[in-house]
Amino acid sequence: MTSVWRFVSNALCRITGRKVAAPTVSEGSTVVVSNSLNEFTTRASFDIKKCDLHGLEAGPPLKTELSRDEGLRFYRTMQVMRRMELKADQLYKQKIIRGFCHLYDGQEACAAGVEAAIDPSDHLITAYRAHGYTYTRGVSVREILAELTGRRGGVAKGKGGSMHMYAPNFYGGNGIVGAQVPLGAGIALACKYQGNNQICVTLYGDGAANQGQIFEAFNMAALWKLPCLFICENNKYGMGTSVERASASTDYYKRGHFMPGIRVDGMDVLCVREATKFAADHCRTGKGPIIMELQTYRYHGHSMSDPGVSYRTREEIQEVRSKNDPISLLKERMLSSNMASVEEFKEIDIEIRKEVEDATQFATSDSEPPLEELCNHIFSNNPPLQVRGTHPWAKLKSSS
Amino acid sequence: MAAAARFLIRGANSKLPIAVVGSGAHCSFGSTFLKLSLNCNSGIKTQRRHAAHFTFQPDPVPTQFGPTQKMNLFQSVTSALDNTLANDPTAVIFGEDVAFGGVFRCTVGLRDKYGKDRVFNTPLCEQGIVGFGIGVAVAGATAIAEIQFADYIFPAFDQIVNEAAKYRYRSGDLFDCGNLTIRAPWGCVGHGSLYHSQSPEAFFAHAPGLKVVIPRGPVQAKGLLLSCIADKNPCIFFEPKIMYRAAVEQVPVESYTIPLSQAEVLQEGSDVTLVAWGTQVHVLREVANLAQEKLGVSCELIDLQTILPWDVETVCKKWSNELGGG
Questions:
Q1: In chain B, what residues touch A368 (CB-CB under 8 Å)?
Q2: A286 close to A279: Cβ distance less than 8 angstroms
Q3: Which residues span the domain enclosing B274?
Q4: In this predicted structure, what is the pLDDT of residue A17?
Q5: A 188-217 residues with CB below 8 A of B?
Q6: CA-CA distance, A80 to A132, in Å (whole number)?
Q7: Of A58, A125, A235, A249, which has the highest C-beta tally within 10 A?
Q8: Given this model, what pLDDT does residue A389 score?
Q9: What is the dihedral of CA A334, A335, A337, A341, to 10 degrees?
């Protein structure tokens, strides 16, 4: 009976946004601080899913604390990513974005959670589904969308496009599957060599997990105890191939064999944060590399040419959206712990919508990069290099 | 199934028109004379998109190989593979996503027809695919490996150049992987950018032991692919992806071969020799016509077809003729 009352009371409070009479909480969370002067709980503790471990005695904690501010920041970050990707989808269908576009919606908790647990001075490299990480690594929505539309205001001057966005300590954005993993190991070596206590977060997908060069990188990283945090974003499908049909072992966190691994619920931003903290700490304390498998899901198909429903059912996608959406999960948690109100979230949504609209406006109206820049930066050279165009009379120049 | 196949093309435009709009791809010779070329004033805010184009010129209907059917490039490839699987019980086709028909539909229907032990998917591992293919070929089966885009062939470069090309030589003819054929979509398509547009034949052109073949259209594609499969040397067959849908010809339904290492003279001429392969053959056809029209220059057009080993005699004989030699 009390639970029914609690449920009704919660629901009423949620609708009206009013302070709860008694400290009512959701399953698995406890209010840590509730300031009666403010409306909202400023800090709450939540249970998070236990991570499967490989080669480790202990794993990330089972409880984590979230402050109101952190929660709202997480919400904001993930919602920006979501809206940005949906806007990219729209622009692509309008043929304002061309070429390739691999969207990240559904996987926001991974990027947001990882970034929250590392420092801006740490390094990160990922594959081609990179818009989310480009944002979390500090590039504005404006610059991302302008890069997608190929304008000079884009983060890569309009010449890189969807798969080639870079930022300080963010090494892209890489088109060739798996090629970024040895690179990440190398960056980690540089960190160790320079003794700067930084780590390199090296991401790859379930498809790339079967590339040979990944295992070469694993071996080098483990042999030399590099501070490399390998993360496999397992979204269950490598383009159109489900993990069961591609991999002899789908326990990607165990694939490092001699390297410890953790399997993490990638749809829960708090879980991702805790696991990343744990793993980053492992690397920073000289214990060597570690693998994290983030179990996540992408709503869109592999790329914009893929409707995403020929190898999985609409029901499956819908199920994840309704039961496991990362943004909804966070929102529900915060609402039921009275950390924020529905109106607040709505306001944030409106702000974000405006931000994305402004960015779109810029991205669609900015000018394209000038033709003189087409061939720049092929080499590092002093005198400009002459580059042959599509025929011998088209003379282009490469300056750098 | 077909709709699914179309959508799974990794980023490639599902409709590849004959005139592909996109700057930077083949610009016809005529544009330098007739309109502003690429490197002109770019002060305007939005640059004009030059129709990067070639006009596919179909071959005349071949009459010597039996009844023909209208096919585009990917269908002619499917037909060649179909003939092979029917006539050669050891033939197997493998690669990424080939089971459902492939990202360019080159293997549509083959798995249903011949079984999942003969047409099967591999995981995402090019080096593994080729290495595995070499093994299959050495053991005596006819191995047809697909690399999803030529741009991804580089992890397999070592296997191709160091293992496949040199197998016969280093074993003193005791072993060989002549039964291996590697197929890959090749060349620019307008929106492919860095990793869906490459033409890497030059990298392989210096590996003796290997054969590198590039067709200019469906009739050539089927004949040359069947020759590659039959050839007792490892072959790489690059298929110009821009022509998969755009190039349509009447293609013989039965098996037939077009000889390797034999260049084809498409047009006789006396002043200049133009040598091309793949998509560029069609561009140069236009060039030859324009040169005749505008400059009164008589061009000889040769389709090299096999890049390695290439038909030196045909090409050089033409040159020596031009120079006044015998």
A1: 45-47
A2: no
A3: 264-307
A4: 46
A5: 207-208, 210-213
A6: 9
A7: A125
A8: 81
A9: 100
Output the six-digit token pair for B289: 């016509």
* Residue B154 located in a structural domain: yes
Task: Show which of residues 58-117 on chain A sit within 8 Å of chain B, judged by CB atoms.
Answer: 98-100
Chain B residues close to A239, C-beta within 8 Å: 8, 10, 97
Bridge partner list, B197? none
Q: Is the pLDDT of residue B260 over 60?
A: yes
Q: Which has the higher per-residue pLDDT, A33 or A224?
A: A224
Q: Are residues B148 and B244 in the same domain?
A: yes
How far is A147 from A388, CA to CA, in rounded Å? 26
Tens of pLDDT, residue by residue over A119-139, are 999 999 999 999 999 999 999
CATH number of the domain that residue B102 is part of: 3.40.50.970
Distance from CA of A287 to the nearest CA of B (A): 30
Instruction: Tell me: do B175 and B87 sit in the same domain.
Output: yes
Chain A nearest C-alpha distance from B65 (Å): 38
- Tell me, what's the pLDDT at B220? 97
| Confidence bin at A392 (pLDDT 50/70/90) | confident
Within an 8 Å CB–CB cutoff, is residue A396 touching chain B? yes
**Chain A residues inside the 8 Å CB shell of B37:** 393-394
Report CB contact under 8 Å: B125, A307.
no
Looking at CA atoms only, how far is residue A195 from chain B in angstroms? 33
Of B11, B125, B152, the CB nearest to A303: B11
B274 and B125, same domain (yes or no): no
Q: What is the mean pLDDT of residues B295-315?
A: 96
Q: Whole-angstrom Cα distance, residue B240 to residue B197?
A: 10
Count of domains in chain B?
A: 2
Q: What is the mean pLDDT of residues B228-255?
A: 97
The set of catalytic residues of B is 126, 196
Which tokens is A92 given? Answer: 């692509």
Show Cβ contacts of residue A133 under 8 Å, excluding neighbours closer than 6 positions.
A111, A114, A115, A124, A126, A170, A203
CB contact under 8 A, A210 and B125: yes
The full length of chain A comes to: 400
Q: What is the architecture, at CATH level 2, of domain A43-369?
A: 3-Layer(aba) Sandwich (3.40)
Residue position matching structure tokens 């990298």: B203
The CATH 3.40.50.970 portion of chain A extends over 43-369
User: What are the tens digits of pLDDT across the range B99-155?
Assistant: 999 999 999 999 999 999 999 999 999 999 999 999 999 999 999 999 999 999 999
Contacts of A226 (CB under 8 A, 6+ apart): A185, A188, A189, A191, A192, A200, A220, A288, A289
pTM for this predicted structure:
0.84
pLDDT over 90 at B24, yes or no: no
How long, in residues, is chain B?
A: 326
